[in-house]
Amino acid sequence: MIRERSALPDARRVVVKIGSSSLTGGDGRLDVAALRALVDVLAARRAAGTEVVLVTSGAIAAGLAPLGLTSRPRDLATAQAAASVGQGLLVARYTEAFATHGLRVGQVLLTAEDTIRRGHYRNAQRALDRLLGLGVVPVVNENDTVATEEIRFGDNDRLAALVSHLVRADAMVLLTDVDALYDGPPSRGARRIDEVHGPGDLEGVVVTGRGSAVGTGGMVTKLASVAIATGSGVPVVLTSAAQAEAALAGAPVGTWFSATGRRVPTRMLWLAHAARTRGRLVLDDGAVQAVVVRRTSLLPAGVTEVHGSFEAGDPVELASAAGDVVGRGLVAYGSDELPGLLGRSTRELLAERGVGYDREVVHRDDLVLVNAPR
Ligand SMILES: Nc1ncnc2c1ncn2[C@@H]1O[C@H](COP(=O)(O)OP(=O)(O)O)[C@@H](O)[C@H]1O
Ligand SMILES: N[C@@H](CCC(=O)OP(=O)(O)O)C(=O)O
């Protein structure tokens, strides 16, 4: 494991994420010179023996000029159209730029779903591993064209953290338009933060969710991304694209976030940090105890209320009668069917409804605890 930034040159595999703000000029359009400069740095790193996965934004920005748009569209359908046109152009630029270094790229478009559904993430994991094994540089972006408002990340920061986990990266490098995390929005007087070793080091730090005109999420989604990565064993460097070379060389630039936790299953990571839940199940006190303290699965007998509209396999919140959210889980029944099963024992349900109805509402392998109840 990489424990300090000076060890970064020894990383076997890194994920580098570049945001829209670093790939666009003042006119909001794709800055091809900036893209080429990044590729030069990544190709050099690759030649020095580190496998590189690039998570890149910029599809929407690249789609603006061809569609005659002057600013980032606000409505989802136009943003998706711009991403559709722009993604092809973006990857073409990367393909050309990496080719000048004798490297091939492979486009990988992911949705949040791909990191949660078992079949999907295994598939993505296999494809990424094979690309790397073949010496290809995977170029990853969110699949904007098919991602709906409910399930999309919108920003690539959290996607990059999940990709880092998926490919078992030794480190993640987040490149943006500021050279580091500051203790407040970077204006006069804000202080650069050199190293963060845990949430305590972020106390008093003010971050805003407003990004640049072209980026989304600002520093808020970057810190959410950092929490996902470091909490599951991947250290992070956050800096500007201009410092990418120095950061990968382990120089003391940007902000270094050391890993705080150990690797957990990918789906669990997504459930804990990224999933937008589709509903809420209210648990009686006995069920809260069973799930939180004894870490058992949730059975129909312990559920008292069902809220929201969801299908089997969707993420839902688990709450106590007092309204505290105690966990999140993938529910095994849809919201149409579940209310008819509440308070019933699995034995009764099996006898009455047949095989399969003795299954848990949320299996313990599909459940993460969020907060202890009051
Ligand atoms: N505490 C902070 N430290 C550094 N930058 C911050 C902070 N709070 C807000 N920001 C803003 O976050 C912006 C980067 O976010 P964003 O525009 O979404 O970038 P990207 O397109 O690279 O994802 C910076 O331009 C900066 O102004
Ligand atoms: N998938 C989108 C990226 C969304 C976005 O702006 O992300 P970011 O610049 O990382 O805040 C695109 O390629 O335009």
Automatic annotation (TrEMBL):
Residues 279-363 form the PUA domain. Gene3D superfamilies: Acetylglutamate kinase-like, PUA domain. Its EC number is 2.7.2.11. Keywords: Amino-acid biosynthesis, ATP-binding, Cytoplasm, Kinase, Nucleotide-binding, Proline biosynthesis, Transferase. It comes from the Bacteria. One of its GO terms (cellular component) is cytosol. Pathway: Amino-acid biosynthesis; L-proline biosynthesis; L-glutamate 5-semialdehyde from L-glutamate: step 1/2. The keyword ATP-binding applies. GO terms for biological process: L-proline biosynthetic process. Belongs to the glutamate 5-kinase family. This is Glutamate 5-kinase. It comes from Cellulomonas carbonis T26. The gene is proB.
